[in-house]
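=== RUN LOG ===
request id: a7f3
mode: sequence -> structure
chains: 1
length: 346
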Amino acid sequence: MKPVTIKDLAKHLLLSYSTVSRALSDDKNIRKETRERVIEAAREFGYQPNTTAQNLRLGRSYSIGVIVPEMITPFASQVLEGIQEILGTKGYKVIIAQSDENPETEKKNLLMMEQFRVDGLIISLTHQTYNNEILLQLQHNGMQMVFYDRIPSNLDVTKVIVNDYAKSLLMVEHLISSGRKQIVHIQGPDHLHNAKERARGYSDALAKFQIQKKSDYIIKAGLTFEDGRQAAEELLRKKIPFDGVFAFTDTLAIGVMNYLREQNLKIPEDVAIASFSGTKLSTIVYPQLTTVEQPLNEMGRVAAELLLEKITDNTKPDKTIILSAELRFRASTKLSENPTIKDRTI
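=== RESULT ===
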C-alpha cells in the first residue's frame, strides 16, 4: 500500500498543504481546532512523517557511516559497541559497511556513504594510502571524518589510536626477559601503518638487548588465521630455530599457535607466543594468549564523540588521541612450572 502523504491529508481535509504541514509540526499559529483535525486524520490514515526528507531540508541526515576492514573477528564489533553507545543517545543512525580488506571495496563504501549523505564517517582503513585522493575529495566537500586503529599515514585528520610502537617494544621485552632469544615476528602487511609501527617496536627491543635481528625471523603475512598457520608452517619447513613469536594480531598468533600444537610443540614450554589486539579471542583459546589489549569499546566511544564535535563545529582542529593499552600476560608466555596463571597488567 502506498504511504499516506501530507498531500493526501490536505486533499481529504480540504486544507492547503502548508496548513497541514504546519499543523503536524505543532505550529502555534494554526488554530487548535484545525491542529486537532489534522492530527486525528493522520492517526486515522496511518500517516508517518518522512524523516529522511525532513532531515535533508535541515541539511542533516542524522546518520553516521562506519567503515570497517572485516567483521570476522570481535575487533570491529567491540569498537562498534562504543560507537553506538554514544551515537544512539544523540538520535543518530549508524550505517555499517565492511571493506573485506580490499581497498577497492573500501572506495565503493566511501562513495556509497557520500551518496547516502551521511553526516560523518568513522573509518579503519584497509590501506594507509590507496584511497587518499577520494578521502581528500570528501574532506574538501565538507565530510567530517575520524579514523581509528588503522590510519592514513600522510593526511591531516582526526585519529584515535594506541601507541603501537611503545607497546610492541614492551611486549618483545617481556619475551626476552622470560628467557627467549630467538624471537620471530609475524609482521602484518606493509600497507598498514600500525604494522610498520609494531615491527619497529620488535626491532628496537632486540637492539636494546643486543640481539641480532635476522631476516629469516621476520615473516611477512596476511591478516587471517590461515595466514598465521602458513607462517608457522614456513618456519618449521625452513627449520628455523625459534623459541618465541610476536605476532601483529591475535588472529595471526592463534593461527601460529594452532599449527604448532598440531606439530606437538608445547606452548609456552617450546615456544612462547605474544600478540597485539586484545580481542575476546585471546581469552577463549588454549592456552590463553598474552597480548597487548587495546581499549576497543573506549576507542569507539572516543571516535564517536570526536566526530560529533566536528559535526557541531567544523572549525575544530584535527587531533590525534592516543589511548592507553594494557599488556596482558597469560599462559602462552608463562612457563608451566607455575600452574596458577592469572592475567597481569602493566
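=== NOTES ===
The longest strand covers residues 63-68.
The longest helix spans residues 296-312.
=== END ===
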